[in-house]
Amino acid sequence: MQRSMNASARLIMSVDEATVRHIARLARIAVSDAEVAALAPELNNILGWVEQLQEVDVEGVEPMTAVIPNRLRLREDAVTDGGIRDAVLANAPAAEHGFFAVPKVIE
Amino acid sequence: MTGLTDLGIAAIRDGVRSGDFSAREVAQAFSAAVEKGRALNAFTVETPDHALAAADAADAARAAGALKPLSGVPLGIKDLFATRDVRTTAGSRILEGFEPPYESTVSGNLFAAGAGMLGKLNMDEFAMGSSNETSAWGPVLSPWRRSDGGNAPLTPGGSSGGSASAVAARLAPGVTGTDTGGSIRQPAAFVGITGIKPTYGRCSRWGMVAFASSLDQAGPMARDVRDCAILLEAMAGFDPKDSTSLDLPVPRWEASLSADVRGKRIGIPREYRIDGVPAEIDEVWEKGIALMRDAGAEIVDVSLPHTRYALPTYYIIAPAEASSNLARYDGVRYGLRRAPPNGNLTDMYEATRAAGFGAEVKRRIMIGTYVLSAGFYDAYFNRAQKVRALIARDFERAWETCDLLLTPTAPSAAFALGEKSNDPIAMYLNDVFAVPASLAGLPAISVPAGLNAEGLPLGLQLVGRALDEQSVLDAGLALEERAGFAARPEAWW
């Protein structure tokens, strides 16, 4: 109970522009100053609205992991696919020598 | 042969079988309607050759006495399904030009059953929207207009808006849709057609562009309940390529279809009576209750106490899963790439995703990233999964006293384009009646039940127990027969 009170108190803190930039960085989406200014109130509005879940008593409730009980299957550890390099690369914006090409990652 | 486009799935199948017309004539009639209906913006790609090839195969199969369940039936395929060598973008610029080298299981199942494809159907970007306005390729228009003489363009709903519009305007006799939190049922209700979301796991998600994997489920949309049963039978089935696919035989839903609901207990959840919903919604609900009672069903009052928490739960879980699923769009393997001069790999990711995703998708990725980030996971995501368990438990308890639930499908009739697009939460509220069944993975159908004072369709939803699509379809048929919905939009396109 104490823990959820603390969580609740912390959640009420609103998302500021620095937080928006941090989330955008984590999500790998470039954002302009104007977008940050617009996103902060939008995200606050949505987060404020979902805040109502804090009032639900979830003591002793297990989080749902599968809507329909279903055991994860195992399959034989065998190659079932492959040899389709050209098909895999067909939609790549840039492919060279049979590989995906990206900007230089090692200086 | 204008009459052919007035036929549904069963009538086309049976007519081709008995030789009343050829499959080729059917494919040509619908392809012509698709072309004539371009003002609706329902299709993003037209594939008349695909439909014709399937039709010719059907005509040959008839001559050889080897007809398949959907021989001669041309369909529209929502652009969320990967179709081999046919552009698949899920309504997003970030998948611009993507031509999958593979076929989704669901579209492949339909084609294997003899169906052809008229084209790919427009939709909200990555299925994130309730009005089709988030599509990178422009909104779909509903064929319906208000009877007040105004010509305000109306939304067909979303995210399966192209699917809904195409069926209502008779551009296709049936289509695929997908439903994450109401994306089959709300558009079906908005345009006066029928759509069913089956139990989670009935239809394979393989080759379906992922939004929120614990919720995404394919289903058919068509003119009536029987046509939905026929299509669902062909779409569903176990698929080892989808880890949550249910390894169960597909019931013969069409053959078992019965409008006899005598003795069925139909629950009316009291928490679905919410403030601010227009009177016309309550009225169509009351009408549906009276019709089911008239059909011999027993009407019982039930309680689903956590209903009001379903939408906020959904708007934590769905964006969280989306933020993870959409991480794959990195400008490396397919789709759009934006690489700033002299930029590094991260610059490329950030520029690509900034240019490729629309505003609503970015908003949801950001919300999802936030609720999953260090320090917030427990308070948001984990708590939402616990509330989700409580919502599912509400349904389990309701099934102790009833067999089905009857509710409105959406809290309003179709609205005008632009009316809600500046208020995300007002838009989210469209799915207030649809989302609880999604969170619990339950089968649910929307059936057209009447028109409002402005002459626009209103739908009713029936929700059933997990795996009990049969009861949902049967009750839907009973409702359909008694509601006698026959209105259709006047062609202006």
CATH third-level topology of chain B: Amidase signature (AS) enzymes
Q: Span from first to last CA of chain B?
A: 19 Å
Largest interface, C-beta within 8 A = A-B, 55 and 74 residues
Major sheet characteristics of chain A: 2 strands, antiparallel
Core attributes:
heterodimer, A: mainly alpha, flat, disordered N terminus, B: 493 residues, alpha/beta, 3-stranded mixed β-sheet
Quick structural overview:
In chain A, 40% of the residues lie in helices and 4% in strands. By secondary structure, chain A is mainly alpha-helical. Chains A and B meet through helix 1, helix 2 and helix 3 of A and helix 10, helix 11, helix 12 and helix 13 of B.
Q: What features would you describe in this structure?
A:
The complex is a heterodimer of chains A (107) and B (493). Chain A starts with a helix and ends in a 7-residue tail after the last strand. The longest helix of chain A is centred in the middle third of the chain and has 18 residues, at 33-50. In chain A, β1 (95-96) and β2 form a beta hairpin. Chain A has 4 helices and 2 strands; from the N terminus they run ααααββ. Chain A has a domain at 1-59. Chain A has helices at residues 2-11, 17-26, 33-50, 85-89, and strands at residues 95-96, 99-100. In chain A, α2 packs across α3. Chain A is mainly α. In chain A, strands 1-2 form a two-stranded antiparallel sheet. By secondary structure, chain B is of the alpha/beta class. Chain B has one domain: Amidase signature (AS) enzymes (Alpha-Beta Complex). Helices cover 37% and strands 13% of the residues of chain B. Chain B has helices at 9-18, 23-36, 48-63, 105-112, 161-168, 185-191, 225-235, 253-256, 279-294, 310-325, 345-356, 359-372, 378-398, 424-428, 435-440, 469-483; strands at 43-46, 74-78, 116-121, 174-179, 194-197, 217-222, 265-269, 298-302, 404-408, 444-451, 457-464. Chain B has an 8-stranded mixed beta sheet, sandwiched between helices. In chain B, strands 1-3-2 form a 3-stranded mixed beta sheet, sandwiched between helices. The longest helix of chain B is centred in the last third of the chain and has 21 residues, at 378-398.
